[in-house]
Amino acid sequence: MLAVELDKAAVKAFMGQLLREEIFDQFEVRTIDIATNIRINIECQTEEGFSTWADLRPVVTAIIKTSPKPSHVKIVFSYKAAEACEIHENAAALFLNLAYENDGVAFTTGTSQKQFLMEKSLDTNWDEWVKGFFAKGDIVVTNRE
């Protein structure tokens, strides 16, 4: 499991990138939790699977723009299930969790296996893919302490 965070100075620019640009649009979204003066929880499952960030980004942007500054935002992204086997043949689901809290942004990764195996190559492959994704998007993260 990867656990990283953004430098506090980069948070505002990153949140703008998340809400305005297409960098995360390739991901499906499992859940979104936003706390402002009220708490909004969005379950993102549809009849066909899960909504993509491309579909949900305008909704989340509207909520954040029209509400007081959020104290908490959590988004559970997942790599499209049909493409997860490109990362590892034993991948049932691959997760990238984003947590905004206390003016900071942290990410953690998670995996779900098709078959239980003791070896960790699925986790390693996913973590390396995510690091490459961050590098392509110029998202500079450091290991979480």
Describe this structure in words.
By secondary structure, the chain is α+β, with helices and mostly antiparallel strands. It has one domain. The chain contains three helices and seven strands; from the N terminus they run βαββαβββαβ. Strands 3-2-4-5-6-1-7 form a seven-stranded antiparallel β-sheet, covered by helices on one side. The radius of gyration is 15 Å and the shape is globular.
Descriptive keywords:
145 residues, alpha+beta, single chain, 3 helices, globular, 27% helix, 7-stranded antiparallel beta sheet
Shape: globular
Across the major sheet, the strand order is 3-2-4-5-6-1-7
Mean pLDDT: 95
Secondary structure tally, helices: 3
Q: Structural class of the secondary structure composition?
A: alpha+beta
How far apart lie the N and C ends?
A: 14 Å
Helix content: 25-40%
User: How many domains make up the 3D coordinates?
Assistant: 1
**Regions with little confidence, pLDDT below 50 for 5+ residues:** none
Main pleated sheet: 7 strands, antiparallel
Strand content: 25-35%
Number of strands: 7
Question: Measured on Cα atoms, how large is the radius of gyration?
Answer: 15 Å
Q: Give the ordered list of helices and strands.
A: EHEEHEEEHE
